[in-house]
Amino acid sequence: MFYADLHVHSRYSRATSRDCDLEHLAIWAAKKGISVVGTGDFTHPGWFEELQSKLVPAEPGLFRLAPSIEDVAARTADVASPMPVRFMLQVEVSTIYKKNGRTRKVHHVVYAPEIEHARRVAQALARIGNLAADGRPILGLDSRDLLEIVLDSGDGCFLIPAHVWTPWFAVLGSQSGFDSVDDCYGDLAHEVFALETGLSSDPAMNWRVSALDRFTLVSNSDAHSPSKLGREACVFNTEVDYFAMRRALETREGYGGTVEFFPEEGKYHFDGHRKCGVCLPPEETRRLDGLCPACGKPLTLGVMYRVSELADRPERPLVPPRGAPPFRNMIPLEEILAEVLRAGPQTQTVQRRYEELLARLGPELVILDAVPLEDIARAGSSLLAEAIGRMRRGQVIRRPGFDGEYGAISLFTQEERRRHTLMGLLFAGPADSERCPAPEEQPPETTNRTGVPEASQGLSQQPLAAPALGLRE
Prior knowledge:
Helices cover 30% and strands 18% of the residues. By secondary structure, it is of the alpha/beta class. The two termini are 14 Å apart.
């Protein structure tokens, strides 16, 4: 079993970190426990040159850093039981065009198994727009025609619609999308076999729409900085091989599902107006006819609202479609440490503890998903083990994101914070002045976003199995 994060960006994309180079992506993939990571941005001329100069072929359809670079990256990661990191050629493409009287803005993730195939995709798209302007090119091209270009570029190339519910830039988005995948890709829709859920939705939300049952649901980080790798990821039970992974996405054989944000943390989960500080669930938005109660203008409709528009299954009880892979919601380890230590995620206090845990226990995703809680208590603290245990059980407090504002997921109530004690252990560290305001106090929940207990949805209550890292089960 291994994790893969197949949607990232390089430093050539807008609003990305200068550290989004291959070396730092490899370092952070090792820290996170990601075995296969997307390259991002292969259509950008400058990045394509770097891919050619720094990557060498590895397993079928995959690449690795050149040995001299790979050795330095592996030593820099400083993680217990590191695993090799492989790269998959990948780019996100934004298409903006008019169709059926509406302007459509749809994002897609494109994959290729060979440098020559990636070159053909780039050459075809260069005839349509300026690929040097942005690592994520913006092109006046119908989504169906982009898919045709990808399919014609070589055997094994494929396309996945990106973050399919995002209001402004997605195939099912409320502002510029379609009501079905078939409407978007037309006569080639049968060539689309997977959809990316995005940070603001998880599989349970997608299961409400029966038209999506035929698609494998994937999750990726869409990282704009290397440290954000793995906040969402796919799980494979195949060989580390491009074609085996592609086949698993097509057939679901060998596909182990996803690890996900709690969808409320995504920045388009609920409806609202960021400037007005208004955040509303779909039922309240409908009561207000979609208008902001503060300014009277139309609200930005979030993912939950859009799902409810297209849903033909009730929110509860909700049963997974036949053959649906499992998923688990997680919280990034830095965020958990920030809450336990009452310090900002990027403070030295949190970063030092983060690196210590990786050096002792292994990569982040393995710590979150599989390391026994007693081992976490010994390496960190009983309080940290309690926090991760609550996350694994879904016992969290949710404050939904809206209109571009990230939400917050908490593990302890305000009363627990006020007492500065839990199970007889004191919180340590300064007051957390860097995190967003605490959510309203409420009992921690043990359900997923839909309010249905996980056990009733047929989801495993056990963590996904750990990779072979020498860790005790």
